[in-house]
Amino acid sequence: MISKIKEHCGIVGIHNVPDAPRIVYETLKFLQHRGQESAGITFLDKDRLSTVKGLGLVEDALDPIILKSSNFSIGHVRYSTTGRGVIDEAQPLSDGKIALAFNGTIPNYINYNVRIDTEFIYEVLKNQEDIRQGIRKLVDVADGGYSLVVLTNKGELIGLRDPKGFRPLVLGKLGSGYIIASEDSAIRQLGGIVIRDVKPGEMIYIKNGSIESEIVARDEVHFCSFEYIYFSRADSIIDGVSVYRARVRLGEILAENHPAKADIVVPVPESSVPIALGFSRKSGIPLEYGLVRTSVSKRSFIMPSQDKRESIVEEKFGVVGEVVRNKKIILIDDSIVRGTTMKKLVKLIRENGASEIHVRIGSPMIRYPCYMGIDFPNKKELIANDKNEMEIAKSIGADSVEYLSIDEMIKAIGRQDLCHACFSGMYPLKHSYDFSKLSVSMKG
Ligand code: 5GP
Ligand code: MG
């Protein structure tokens, strides 16, 4: 059995709103960018929780016809690192009495007799008379990054953000009841009212329409910088910081400190558009959409083999020949992970007649795996693991490559309390982990 050790996902829970499962279904579509591998919904049906799940995008995975009417529901969209046998590990995980949907990674699950971290959470919660007691225990034993929603067959809805606050989670008002979701943009898009971010270490407990808040544990906050750089929607605001503004600032600082002589700035759509906008405005070099995104929805990143990843990149992008021909280009992306995307794009743009290509990246070099919920591969696969900027330029065929430094990134986002483990190797966890060991236990 192959288990996933990494979940970067979207979650939602709804309490006391008519047609909650249908609303959860809509919300999952608004959170689709956070996970495209599977989708699932649990809802309260009389005094039992029912769960439906499927593989792929929300609209392929779930048939809204089979959702019953209910006022209580949670849902999940999922990403993980391998592409096989995922349906039994799709979420929500439920035994009919409690259901949980989870975004993050809890790497110390390997010390327990469970296959994956989701099961670890379930094992801690399942035999507790009072679900709040289970949550307190979970926070006590879990080491990692996690945001979580739990629904019980008594109609209780719980939202929890880990004490270091690695992943986002937001509380809102929706009609007669409440909603808890990964991003505020999804709540607003539904017509709900955003109340506030769930605080790091905070448990929100909603029963019979009334809300209790409890800080279960306090710790130093380390919010995931990659949520701002790439992962969250640009129209989200996380802990008071606009994702869009952060991305524009990444681009501005990139232009200030890592300039290049060029005719046009070209973003790799979609995630790097605000970064390229910031770069263009600051440098005065015009922004041009030299790359278009086709409607191929599969993300190259999650394809299981390198061959497949490469062919998907080719399907995903088209080049506007007349924009790039005979031009010196600054090509902007939010990040380079394995280098697959950049290598292909540089080649495609050159084939279309560009004279120079200077790659500028709106994040620092990704050199370490993540154990807190982003699915970066092990060190050996990361292109920046053993290469400097010049060597990377050579390897992807660009005239130059420059990244932001960690300090520049922190300045751009404007938060001091960011996790930068994937860039720095400094893991703000209680214990240290070895990706290769986790991989071994994955296969066990
Ligand atoms: P690479 O092709 O270098 O392996 O990955 C870099 C590309 O993947 C960039 O265009 C970036 O926007 C995107 N990317 C970065 N991190 C992630 C991730 O966690 N998931 C997915 N699907 N894409 C990512
Ligand atoms: Mg991208």
TrEMBL record:
Mg(2+) binds at residues 271, 333-334. One of its GO terms (molecular function) is amidophosphoribosyltransferase activity. Keywords: 4Fe-4S, Glutamine amidotransferase, Glycosyltransferase, Iron, Iron-sulfur, Magnesium, Metal-binding, Purine biosynthesis, Transferase. The keyword Manganese does not apply. Its EC number is 2.4.2.14. [4Fe-4S] cluster binds at residues 224, 370, 419, 422. Residues 9-209 form the Glutamine amidotransferase type-2 domain. Pathway: Purine metabolism; IMP biosynthesis via de novo pathway; N(1)-(5-phospho-D-ribosyl)glycinamide from 5-phospho-alpha-D-ribose 1-diphosphate: step 1/2. Its cofactor is Mg(2+); [4Fe-4S] cluster. It catalyses: 5-phospho-beta-D-ribosylamine + L-glutamate + diphosphate = 5-phospho-alpha-D-ribose 1-diphosphate + L-glutamine + H2O. One of its GO terms (biological process) is 'de novo' IMP biosynthetic process. Binds 1 Mg(2+) ion per subunit. The active site is at 9 (nucleophile). In the C-terminal section; belongs to the purine/pyrimidine phosphoribosyltransferase family. PANTHER family: AMIDOPHOSPHORIBOSYLTRANSFERASE. Catalyzes the formation of phosphoribosylamine from phosphoribosylpyrophosphate (PRPP) and glutamine. This is Amidophosphoribosyltransferase. The gene is purF-1.
